[in-house]
Amino acid sequence: MSNDENIYRQMLNAIVEHQLPPGARLPEDRLSEAFGVSRTGIRKVLQRLALEHFVIIEKNKGAQVNRPSEAEALEVLDSRILIEPQLIPALLDHWNTEHSERFRIMVTEEKRAEEANQLADSIQLTARFHYELAKLSGNQVLASFVEQLCYRSSLILAAYGTRGSVGCECGDHSQLLDILDQGRKDEAKTWMSHHLKHIKSSLILESKPEENIDFQRLFGR
Amino acid sequence: MSNDENIYRQMLNAIVEHQLPPGARLPEDRLSEAFGVSRTGIRKVLQRLALEHFVIIEKNKGAQVNRPSEAEALEVLDSRILIEPQLIPALLDHWNTEHSERFRIMVTEEKRAEEANQLADSIQLTARFHYELAKLSGNQVLASFVEQLCYRSSLILAAYGTRGSVGCECGDHSQLLDILDQGRKDEAKTWMSHHLKHIKSSLILESKPEENIDFQRLFGR
DNA sequence: AATGAATTAATTGTGCACAATATTGGTGTG
DNA sequence: CACACCAATATTGTGCACAATTAATTCATT
């Protein structure tokens, strides 16, 4: 694996697992020291993470882990609600027992991670479940978009999620597999839709402190 | 406007307008010379273009304009078919005469550009029409994804499009505006779907030269 | 003690130099 | 003449140094 990709993965993991919480600053010096490469390499990775909305780079102020706005949070979930259910039909065309078994193993791991309270693994596995499912649709363009949305969702749950739940309960995911095994296309679509809407509605909005208070609007004029 | 963004826009324009055709090599030296900045700045732009699939960077071999594979071309169009029609309902919620007028001006410009045989402007305007429409859905996440897909479509049409047509005829776009003005939601959705499927089916596949010719298969054995 | 200016420190932006790698052309040998 | 090997060239990869900017601290003044 290339060195860049390695660093990128490690940082992305740290972000979606909330080891680097939203708002955490990411000074290039420390990172270059930590990874044993020059700032040049770090900057490349940060640029990429910024384009994918995992970090925010402000000119002359450096990078920090993105703190998704409420609007962004809702839009990401809405995007998933619009896309993921629509992938089910194509997915079912390729669905077979091999896939079923593979995903059931994943769900088992999810369950174990959640019971062991290993938040990091739990988050990763939840996102991977949705991404791997999307890949089976056969459309790699959409799949990689779903991948990005899933990881962004992890970040969103860090900011707005109900504590303890990472969004989808594992039981839920095995439910979907049952439906897929029975080839019930429409049911699977609506299940996925409900599942994502459930996550969306579980977000706790308007409770976090505002980052930029609009004093002008509050007192001005 | 920042310098990076400026260079990025210029290069992206050159690519989607086919001034830099698929396969064109992009040596960092020449570009840094042309733009009057150091290779550092150029590399940043190239990295970004690569992440967005407009150029391909191979290790130690540099960047070149992406030549989309047939599979990629179909996947991009399929993605648009899946997303863009679904944006219509939300779009219609905000639709008003101001929007209508703005888009009719755009269509007029499209028509003029096409008649004047200004391929570059024509391509830009066609992509912008779809992107601006997507923005009106209110979901910026999906809109910027659509933007990327539209620009990638331009690149695809460079490789697989029928000569003379850039995909959508302008008459078509004004048709959609008529339907939107009448608030016919379902009709607009199906129109958009048909429109994109028409573009997809107009692609001339398996006719362009392969990027990596398999000489072994072609002559060997 | 509070405020504001000025200095200091920390961090990022940018260009350059050298190392690493791939490609091309040439040379020699069988 | 074919083949392999080697050398030269061109291009990218990476680290470093210095400039530019922002943030923090100090200090002076009221």
Automatic annotation (TrEMBL), chains A, B:
**Pfam families attached here?**
FCD, GntR
The cross-references to Gene3D superfamilies, in alphabetical order and at most eight, read: GntR ligand-binding domain-like, Winged helix-like DNA-binding domain superfamily/Winged helix DNA-binding domain
* Protein name, as recorded: DNA-binding transcriptional regulator, GntR family
State which residue ranges cross the membrane.
none
Quick check: keyword DNA-binding in the entry? yes
Where in the numbering of this chain does the HTH gntR-type domain appear? Answer: 1-68
Question: Is Transmembrane included in the keywords of this UniProt record?
Answer: no
Q: Which PANTHER family match?
A: HTH-TYPE TRANSCRIPTIONAL REPRESSOR NANR, TRANSCRIPTIONAL REGULATOR, GNTR FAMILY
**Which GO molecular function, any one, fits this protein according to its record?**
DNA-binding transcription factor activity
What does the UniProt keyword field contain?
DNA-binding, Transcription, Transcription regulation
Q: Which InterPro entries match?
A: GntR_C, TF_FadR/GntR_C, Tscrpt_reg_HTH_GntR, WH-like_DNA-bd_sf, WH_DNA-bd_sf
